[in-house]
Automatic annotation (TrEMBL), chain A:
PANTHER family in UniProt: THIOL:DISULFIDE INTERCHANGE PROTEIN DSBE (PTHR42852:SF6)
Species name: Planococcus maitriensis
A Pfam family this chain is assigned to: AhpC-TSA
Protein name: Thiol-disulfide oxidoreductase
Protein keywords: Cytochrome c-type biogenesis, Disulfide bond, Redox-active center, Signal-anchor, Transmembrane
From TrEMBL, chain B:
PANTHER family referenced in this protein's UniProt entry, alphabetically: CYTOCHROME C BIOGENESIS PROTEIN CCS1, CHLOROPLASTIC (PTHR31566)
Keywords for the protein's UniProt record, in alphabetical order: Cytochrome c-type biogenesis, Membrane, Transmembrane, Transmembrane helix
Biased composition regions of type Basic and acidic residues, renumbered to the chain: 540-550
Organism whose genome encodes this protein: Planococcus maitriensis
Domain ResB-like per the UniProt entry, residue ranges: 65-520
Region listing for Disordered, in residue ranges: 527-550
Compartmental location: Membrane
One Pfam family from the record: ResB
This protein's name: Cytochrome C biogenesis protein
Keyword Cell wall biogenesis/degradation set for record: no
Topology in membrane: Multi-pass membrane protein
Record's keyword annotation contains Membrane: yes
One of the record's GO cellular component terms: membrane
Transmembrane parts of this sequence: 67-85, 126-148, 216-238, 467-487
Amino acid sequence: MSTEKKRNKKKNRTIMRSVILLLLVAAIGYTIYNSVTADEVEVLKVGDPAPDFTLTDLDGETHKLSDYKGQGVFLNFWGTWCEPCIKEMPAMANQYEVYEDQGVQILAVNIAQSNFEVETFARQYGLNFPIVIDRDKSVMTAYNIRPLPTTMLVNPQGEIQRIVTGEMTEQDIAGFMEEIKPE
Amino acid sequence: MDKLICKCGHENPPGTILCESCGRPLNEQEQSKKLADMRYEGTARRSQTYNKSIIDKIWNFFSSVKIGVGIIVVLLVAAAVGTILPQKQYVPAATDADIEAYYTDIYGSVGTVYHALGFHDLYNSFWFIGLVGMLAISLIIASLDRFVPLYKSLKNQRVLRHSSFMRKQRILAEGPGEADTLKKAEEKLAELKYKVSTDKNGLLAEKGRFSRWGPYINHIGLIIFLFGVMLRMMPGFYVDETLWIREGETRAIPDAPGYVLESKGFTLETYTGEGEEEKFGEAIDRVGTVAKNYQTDVVLYKIPEGALPGDTADMEVVEEHAIRVNQPFKFDGYALYQMDFQQDELKTMSFALQNKETGESRGDLTIDLVNPETTYELEDGSVVELLGYYPDFSGFENGEPQTATPLPKNPGFLVKMTTPDTPDGETSFITIQNTVEPLGDNEYKLAFQGVETRDASGLTVRKDRTLPILGLGGLIFMIGVAQGMYFNHRRFWIQQQADGSILLAGHTNKNWFGLKKDLDQVTEHASLPAYRDQQEDMEAQEKGEGEQLT
């Protein structure tokens, strides 16, 4: 065998082996990546389009997320049993007064509670934004909400700008609304 | 490394034991052996051939069977360690932080280390998946490295082998032959379904070569199986979720977009021990109750194509179904299993509006704990107004009643009672244990009358699109096993020298008895010289020597 042929064979061998190894390592890497990220709350990721939904508020009015395109939507999932949810509600109401005119909409999604509980709560805290009830938890499931409160910040393009889990201060809320406010 | 040039002139890759062409032993060790090492036909394992670049070194690492076995041992040990403490799904904690704290609290520093190393969620820990992946690499590379040279060698094998190769085979016959011996042997071997090829003064008869591919087919099956397991991690391939649903509730099915489930009722039946069920009497006496049936009656709805989550107006009934243990409800690739239940959760509470002094009742009211109303009007004009409802009352904070969960486990009510006697109304806060009258003594009270309860069903939602792949992998695995176990690769080499003498060698990868039976028939038909089993001879000799020593 000539030396050139030999060198070619060696080169081919190295390429072949590198390709096989690379493929296998890539498959394993992808599997590990998937298993590590699978457990996290955010199956929806920042930048994903926010799943559309339609829910009815306490006044019987229907709210469809896609109808708010062009506005920022502050989508807050909550329940009356959740302490931090209750605490951030008045702050949300305050900031809503500031940002409503600037094109930021709050939708508070209650998780499958009764009309009575939600109405009483809204009256007691003087809440000025629409509260919708997710009676069969389908929106909660679509957004894969685990801990409460979770707030999805949807930008005017209808994409998820930020996912916040846990209690927010009034300062946080103002900052987030600033983020999703239309230009 | 240089190529090994055999006496016959053939160039063999470095590491070869038996010449690829004529079969002569190529190293001293092999020459000194009485029987040839026929594993992989004496070819060089490819990885031994080259060992220069870093890629070659990695390749050689995975090609080693020792490494493969080592990885399997490590995996077994890890899996065993993973059973010492409970896995995270069996731990009574929900969030990651709680789970971590649980291991530390209950098992001390051992638990901390256990959790830190990922043993609490072994099958999802990156190093365990990494090891399984390495095992897959090892399977693929070790197989490639052995299969390719073996395949080439068997494909290109020559009819005429050197006499030193033949004499080192376990089955050997030497002796005089007739002029038509080869012809007759060929006839008989062909009759026994051997593939016979001839060359000059020799013949090669071969049967069942495909049996040699058994281990590689088997490995392909394993790789497909591992691939299927890997797919489970991809979104959409595998769903394993829990859905708690209470009687009367309607819930979206997790990870099954568009499907909504309503629970019509949960039933737990037990054996009575009477009549036809008398045979269970003894067991019932011993353990108290014996369950006969766990069942959830459900209605499955589908949200029409294009409708949005939350839009329940146009839901269509797909099917009404009774889910029983081991009889899952299957639809559209999903299966709902009856897994758990919770009985007697509060559903409604009934009260009587009573005068505290006289005990006289002004009427009854029933509060639906799932969907309470604002006012309850009694017959004589009395009104009970619900001011606040706290399904799982947990105390006061800043004077406000709190609820711990949305479930009516410990309901608390803030009510205003108005009767013709007390037109201004009286306020009372009622829980199961006691009644508080925050605005002074009342004339009337709500006296507890009774409750209605409902059951909750714990269902498992499962979808597994990897099952066909796992099944295919398992099937191929079994085909490989059968191929390697129940079929043998048998070969005979026969040569007739110029003086008419016959040299015969036989080899099989297993089942030497079967090979000998074939050879017996050929020997009889073609009057071949008697053969010997050189390995048995050697064993007999060793045994003989051993006996002489003792």
